[in-house]
TrEMBL record:
<keyword id="KW-0046">Antibiotic resistance</keyword>
<keyword id="KW-0067">ATP-binding</keyword>
<dbReference type="Pfam" id="PF00005">
    <property type="entry name" value="ABC_tran"/>
</dbReference>
<dbReference type="InterPro" id="IPR050763">
    <property type="entry name" value="ABC_transporter_ATP-binding"/>
</dbReference>
<dbReference type="InterPro" id="IPR003439">
    <property type="entry name" value="ABC_transporter-like_ATP-bd"/>
</dbReference>
<dbReference type="GO" id="GO:0005524">
    <property type="term" value="F:ATP binding"/>
</dbReference>
<protein>
    <submittedName>
        <fullName>ABC transporter ATP-binding protein</fullName>
    </submittedName>
</protein>
<dbReference type="InterPro" id="IPR003593">
    <property type="entry name" value="AAA+_ATPase"/>
</dbReference>
<feature type="domain" description="ABC transporter">
    <location>
        <begin position="5"/>
        <end position="231"/>
    </location>
</feature>
<keyword id="KW-0813">Transport</keyword>
<dbReference type="InterPro" id="IPR027417">
    <property type="entry name" value="P-loop_NTPase"/>
</dbReference>
<keyword id="KW-0547">Nucleotide-binding</keyword>
Length: 247
């Protein structure tokens, strides 16, 4: 089986700071792969490079056997920051995106309507994006990533700011996508979510991979959260006493 994402020796430096430091990532086709790590670990920078939004300083990236540029039609992306055209409504944006992706207008209309319904966007989709809540914007961003039926989804924190019911809807959509042979790579801070929906996980710390493999293997008999804290916690959590907080 072809590998969906094959990254070797990825490096990105901002000024003097190496945000991504020789990172390797392998994502099997037809799986859901979680990328986790503490704040500032280099997850978004890695995903940005994976989809061609950030230029790497070094390293190689192959997506579904192609160079990044050649894989664009196969890719659905939910980027960090989610810069949306604020005056459009979600429904307008979806139809516009579908048009840019070359879909027939009737198909675009049908798919947009279906995504709006499935993701619980019926109310929000008619509102200008500037006036939408963070969670609604996130769901519209996800719908935008899905509308052209990509084969590889790269999602930067798709569950951030999303309510539990919407999170369940998103999970179901992603599960169906993967069951149909699609591949999803997502970053998240929720270890529970990774345990619930990912086959494999890569733990990134200070721009490097500190653990990778099947979720159960990385969790090593405990919870993924415990293992995560074990792997990165000592460096992340300070040891100050905060005595002044106790009266
Ligand atoms: N354009 C940039 N210029 C300078 N530094 C940057 C830039 N983008 C990212 N960084 C730095 O690179 C490091 C990695 O950032 P990145 O956003 O990839 O981390 P992350 O793992 O996604 O973090 P979080 O979980 O907080 O979203 C951080 O220290 C960040 O401040």
């Amino acid at each position: 089986m072809e590998t969906a994402v094959e990254i070797r020796g990825l490096v990105k430096t901002f000024g003097q700071f190496r945000a991504v430091d020789g990172l390797d990532l392998t994502v099997r086709t037809g799986t859901c792969h979680g990328v986790v790590g503490p704040n500032g670990a280099g997850k978004s920078t890695t995903l940005g490079m994976t989809v061609g939004l950030i230029t790497p300083d070094a390293g190689t990236i192959r997506l579904l056997g192609h160079e990044v540029r050649a894989a664009r039609a196969l890719l659905g992306v939910l980027p960090e920051g989610l810069d949306l055209p604020e005056r459009l409504t979600g429904a307008e944006l979806l139809r516009y995106t579908a048009g840019l992706r070359g879909l027939d207008p009737a198909v675009a209309k049908n798919r947009s309507a279906e995504l709006i319904e499935v993701l619980g966007l019926t109310k929000g989709a008619g509102t200008p994006l500037a006036d939408c809540s963070t969670g609604t914007r996130k769901k519209i961003g996800l719908a935008q990533a899905l509308v052209h039926a990509p084969r590889l989804l790269v999602l930067d924190e798709p569950f951030e700011a999303v309510d539990p019911v919407s999170a369940l809807a998103i999970r179901r959509v992603l599960q169906r996508f993967v069951a149909g042979g699609g591949t999803t790579v997502l970053s998240t801070h929720s270890m529970l979510l990774v345990e619930q929906m990912c086959d494999d996980v890569t733990v990134v710390h200070r721009g490097k991979v500190v653990a990778a493999g099947p979720v159960s293997g990385v969790a090593a008999g405990g919870t993924l959260e415990d293992r995560f804290v074990e792997l990165v916690g000592a460096d992340v959590v300070g040891a100050g006493s905060l005595d002044w907080l106790t009266q």
